[in-house]
Every structure is written in structure tokens, then in C-alpha cells.
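User: What would this chain look like folded?
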Amino acid sequence: MKSFNVSAIDKAIRYNKGTPGTMEVDLERKMVLGNESGKMYVLEGEKTKVASGNLEPSPLTLHVNVGDCIKVNLKNEMAKERAGFHVDNLAYDPKESMGINAGNNPGDQTVAPGQSKTYTFYAHPEFGENSALIQDWGNVIENPRNGLFGAVIIGPKGSQYRDPVTGEDLAQKSSWRADVIVDRAVSGNENRQNYRSFALLFQDEDNITGTSFMPYIQKVAGVTAVNYRSEPTDYRTEKGCAYSEVLSCVKTGDQPVTPTIAAHVGDPVVIHVLGAFSEQVQLFSVSGHEWKHEPYIKGADLVSTMEFGGSEVFNAWLNGGAGGPNGIPGDYLWLNQRPGYLDAGHWGMLKVLDRDNRAILPLSGKAPATQHAEGKSSAKSLPVSMKAKAK
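Assistant: Here's the prediction, encoded as C-alpha cells.
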């Protein structure tokens, strides 16, 4: 049994602290980068830090194993709205823990402000290793739009979860990234490898762009974020970034505020993509990488882009691990392939590090040996852009 004490709270969200709260895009519409009506699920032990601003919030992301029974003790600490806790891809009694007031089911499955309720779920083996979207149905129209959503990530039986940088045990924590340490003594896990797990929760709310509305909309308005973060390209160009280099420019910081995925070259990696709140269909892609369309079916087609919409989830196990089959380290992009949403902030970095890089812990638990090339070369490497200018 795993038990989590969770609170639903009101909390203003800044999707990018460097930007103004809104940015005008077109037709007097605005991109929203600050939400004063923000709401979120937080663990009881992190509530004070999040409320005070000492901990940068991300959507609640819990880690459990196949076969786990999970209890969530939800307390509604929002001022006005009712709260619920509905989770897809987990088994539950619909009369007790559906989190939705549906049909003639008895009682109220949502929670009034100041009240509490316990929900019970089971990570059923028939669902297997998966990702599950947490949604509020106390006010399903407004609360998820304002951030009241999360995820449950289901891993192999007996697995442990740790922070890839600090090594902290994440079994009872919330974290969008985790190293999954597989127990090979468990039947069925004998040949499994440890792997790196990342959860990206997408939200958008522009229901006009891409439609037959005229004049044709070029820019996306409203909230466009991943894990409560957004990196709009217009902000970068305003800070002096050339559009041809807008995704690599460092004038707004060494890296975007959106989640940066990091792994050593060759590490097994799964990216859980969740449509937390969406008005439109989106296209997720990772540059230089592919994954199976159906990850657990032998011989499934490899894809480099997948479509998803609101409430949809999929799990992208990178073929060949970080750096692909050829094991090429470097900086890659994860992104929404729809240009308007990419420009509005739906993108971030995948950093594939050399095996001896100590920025993250090795999956093996041991520091890899540093390798040195024999001999020295007088040749100097130049960025591609500088080589072009030299010509």
C-alpha cells in the first residue's frame, strides 16, 4: 500500500518569470504567461514551500509500481471551488473513487472547500507499465485549465525511484523526472535495465488557431505550457535573439525554462506525454530520435512524431536510448511540431551527455570510467555557423 496526502490549493502560476504576464499576439488577443487564478495539487509535505515560493511547482507526478494499491487522501484547500481526484489507467471502484459525480452513483465524489476524501486505486497488471492522467472533476471546465491536473507513472514491480541529480528517494515524492531502479530479483524483471523516466504535461486553450476563422490566425493565444513552464520565441526575439538561432540563443538564459531532459548517451529513456488540458490536437516530436508507436508490441513501427489531444497519453521509449542507435551525444529538441504552439512555448531540450559527465548520476550506480583519446590533434573544431562564414 502506498499512501499520499495531497492538497488542492489556489496558487498563482508564472509560466516564465522573465516575461510579462501577457504578450499581445494578433487581433488584440494575448498570450497568457501569468495566471492569477492558478490551482494545483501538491503533496502535504511540500505545500508550505510551494505557497511561499520557495519551491518552484510542477504538476503533481507520483511514481508507483505495477501491483501497488494506492490511497490518496485529498484535502480541498481552495477558497471556492470543489475538487476531485480522477485517475485514468488505474483500477478503482466507480462508486467510491471515480472522482466524478456520474449517473446514479451514490454520494458526492468531489470535495467541498475545507473538506477531505480518500480515494483508492490499484495499478492493475492488465494496465501494466503506463502513465495515468490525474484530472479534477469538481469543476472540469475551469480547474484543469488553471493547473489542477497531474500524473501517476506506473513502473515495473519492485522498482525504486530516485532523483537523477541528488539521488534522493522519490518513492513518496512528486517529481516529473526519475531514475527507475529495477529489481531484477522480481520474476519477469530478470533482463530489465534501469531507465530514466520523464513526464511532460501539455496544456493549451486556443480554440481558434488552425481553424477556418478569417483572417487566418498566425499566433497562439491564452495559456500554452508544459509542466507549468513556457518559452515563447517572441520573448526571445525581443531580447535580441535572431530567429534563425532562436532555439539555441542564450540571451534569455543558458537553457529554456521548460523541462530539460538529461541522460547519458545510451541510457534507456521513456518520455511520458500527457495532454493535461487541450483545445486542439498536438504533435510531439524529439529531434534525432524515434520510438515504437506501440511500445510493448514486437515489430511495431518506429515513429518520430505522434499526435495527441486532451486527456490522451502515450509513452515514448526512445529507440537505442538517449542519442539514438548511433549513440551521438549533444543537445536535441523535444517540441510540438505545430509551429504556432512551438512559437508559443511548447519546446525544450534533451541533453545527451557523455558517459563520464557528472551532472547526473549514472544509472548503473557506479561512476563510469573516463576515457581519453590517445595522441593529440592540432585541428580546431568550429561551429557550423562559423565554418559557413569562413567560406
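Confidence is low (pLDDT under 50) at residues 367-391. If you want, I can go into more detail on any region.
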